[in-house]
Design goal:
Shape: globular
Structural class: mainly alpha
CATH topology of the largest domain: MetI-like fold
Order of helices and strands: HHHHHHHHHHHHHHHH
Number of strands: 0
Mean pLDDT: 85
Radius of gyration: 23 Å
CATH superfamily of the largest domain: MetI-like
Number of domains: 2
CATH class of the largest domain: Mainly Alpha
Strand content: under 5%
Length: 288
């Protein structure tokens, strides 16, 4: 047996792995087999369906931006910082992952609702958050934020600080090191975390319906439309469910393509004052 075979895995792992694959695939196959294919196009292009799809994509993109703006600093502080209660802070950041979605919605409602912690202040400022599109973005960002924090923090812990120390030795400031060295090294993890946050936001239901309700064109996202249609028109619910699965699958597949790393490197070079992408070409050049 060659070295590759010895470094492999036991053959019996195929059994639980196969069962896991069946466990995941069977429900998806069940959806496909129950789709009303002759009317599929009409079911997913109705006025309410298109409005829900448009709102879902818009709010998911908005919540992903919120997750990036808040999650990147949180990940850096948790991975590189040293402060009292750090383990507790990390656990609290991850709490939305294990909270039931309805509980997340109630927590948000008691935060920004008219009788919540921030409700009276928001009302004095003329801001009505609950049952608005902003509430949808808030709910999606709350449940999706841990995904990007986990991805980036894990990547930061595997990256040595050697280059950071060299930059400091040459007189670079902490901010320069952050934007020139630390963040560019997190490219793949950043993409993965952002994609996971977007996908989680796209499928959010429980927290959204609790804090935002289900108003067509305002707060009724695609998952809420599926829930409503399941009671009114099951064929439409199945068709929209398949559409949501396909969108999520496409997002994950596109984000996982190898070319994304090169494209991201080029983009980072532009932001690092290297418009011709010379450093990217250097990274991709094989030294003989």
């Amino acid at each position: 047996m060659n070295g590759r075979g010895r470094r492999g895995y036991p053959a019996w792992l195929w059994v639980p792995a196969g069962l896991g694959a069946v466990f995941v695939l069977l429900p998806l196959i069940a959806i496909v087999t129950h789709v009303d294919w002759p009317d599929f196009g009409q079911l997913i292009t109705s006025t309410s369906s298109l409005a829900a799809l448009r709102l879902s994509i818009l709010t998911a993109l908005s919540s992903t931006v919120v997750c990036v703006v808040l999650g990147v600093p949180m990940a850096v502080v948790l991975a590189r910082g040293r402060f009292p209660g750090q383990s507790i802070a990390r656990a609290l950041v991850l709490v939305p992952l294990v909270m039931p979605p309805v509980v997340s919605g109630l927590a948000l409602l008691y935060t920004v609702g008219s009788r919540g912690l921030l409700g009276p202040t928001l009302l004095r400022l003329g801001l009505q958050v609950p049952f608005s599109t902003a509430a949808v973005v808030l709910a999606q960002a709350f449940v999706s934020l841990p995904f990007i924090v986990i991805s980036l923090e894990g990547a930061l812990r595997t990256v040595t600080e050697t280059h950071d120390e060299i930059a400091f030795a040459y007189g670079a400031s902490r901010t320069q090191v952050l934007f020139k060295i630390t963040l560019p090294s997190l490219g793949p993890a950043f993409v993965s975390g952002a994609v996971l946050s977007f996908a989680r936001s796209l499928g959010e239901f429980g927290a959204t319906i609790t804090v935002a309700g289900s108003l067509q064109g305002v707060t009724r996202t695609l998952p809420l439309e599926i829930y409503l249609q399941n009671n009114l028109n099951p064929d439409a619910a199945v068709a929209l469910s398949l559409l949501l699965v396909v969108i999520a699958l496409v997002v994950v597949l596109v984000a996982g393509q190898p070319w994304r790393h090169a494209a991201l490197a080029e983009l980072l070079d532009v932001f690092n004052d290297d418009p011709r992408g010379e450093r990217s070409r250097e990274r991709n050049t094989v030294v003989p």
